[in-house]
Amino acid sequence: MVNPGQPLDKVLADELAQLREAGLYRSRVALDTNQGARVSIAGRAYLSFASNDYLGLAADPRLVEAARAAALHYGVGAGASHLLHGHSAAHDALEQVLAEFVGCPRALVFSTGYMANLGVVTALCGRDDEIFADKLNHASLNDAMVLSRARFRRYPHLDLDALDRALERSTARRKLVATDAVFSMDGDIAPLPDILRLCEKHDAYLLIDDAHGFGVLGVHGAGALSHFGLRSERVLYMGTLGKAAGVYGAFVAGDEVLIDYLVNRARTYIYTTATPPLLAAALLESLSIIRSEGWRRERLRELARTLMAGLGSKSFMMLPSQTAIQPFILGTTARAVNVSARLAEAGILVPAVRPPTVPRGSARLRISLSAAHEPADVQRLAQALCDIEP
Fold first, then answer.
1. Is the predicted pLDDT of residue 2 greater than 70, yes or no?
2. d(CA 179, CA 141)
3. Domain 30-59+294-388 is classified in which CATH homologous superfamily?
4. Res 85 pLDDT > 90
5. I want to staple 253 with a disulfide (CB 3.0 to 4.6 A). Which of 237, 260, 284, 366 is the partner?
6. What does the pLDDT read at residue 249?
7. What angle do CA 18, 20, 25 make, to 5 degrees?
């Protein structure tokens, strides 16, 4: 029990010490360079498999130039929230292009994916409603459920029979199913058509968090809806713009009434300053590149094949994934941290992912592939893993 007379810094220091003892303490490093397949930290060069820059666009000169030109025109900051004259023509153009790209009537740009999920869920659901969520969903969806004050049930990962039964039992006024499209630590893809059929069967709505599929999956990288050919008024689609798109922000797409409702009711949209217009301009350039340069997505598929081939007999330690996220399962926290550290000594960055981010006993290396990698880079990683891990 905590002694109520203890200073707060002593209480917090004790908790941090416990995290260190359990191997769960986290700290930051500062990059000396731009994001990319090769980075520098404290003057040392590394081959990096630690970024969500899946298409290698974060430092693309064309995006930099688009941002520079927009900064000269709009300045650096938006200066106000969207509803108080912080909404620029660049924001407006981006929303129109995003809606058309993912095949929805309208889109709404948010500052982050976290804010988008909180905004949507808390706007749509309250005390009389019920939310059903995959147990491996991103933390932002879990936090959104709690903040909404709705009842919520988390079903076992991809267990649609359990979801079907839970929906059948529900007597809620409004039912919302929330799921990642691509699960951020496993790299697997949710069976969205089957989930949508359950929503139709039980009169529920479906919120899809496509943070890791947008730009990577689907025709021209249009994301999970395109990947599965889904179109439904029951679907609310969220995509992020700081991963494959290489910039920053997020958006929600859906029908006209939904977006109009969120403009008026999503607190994380209403009560925050709009993102800088220069980012919207950079994103318009990014979307053009994503559409036209399909080789980037093909490169990701090629690199995934190269990794599996290079691991040989150790490929069984990989979770099956059709995406840029390639998890290498090591089990214990100590083992994952040790292998990550030894890779870093060899000049290769691959983060160790530990509980509570992943379930206990499934600590792993989260290998993130990028179109900026060359096959030789992946071969080097595979060989290092074979040499390090007994």
1. no
2. 8
3. Aspartate Aminotransferase, domain 1 (3.90.1150.10)
4. yes
5. 237
6. 98
7. 110
Architecture of domain 61-156+206-292: 3-Layer(aba) Sandwich (3.40)
Structure-token pair, residue 262: 């969120």
The domains of the chain are located at 30-59+294-388, 61-156+206-292
- Single-letter amino acid code for the residue at 109: V
Dihedral sign of CA atoms 62, 65, 67, 69 in order: negative
What is the predicted pLDDT for the residue at 1?
46
Q: Locate tokens 């290998």: which residue?
A: 367
**Residue in this structure with the two tokens 């900051």, named with its chain if needed:** 77
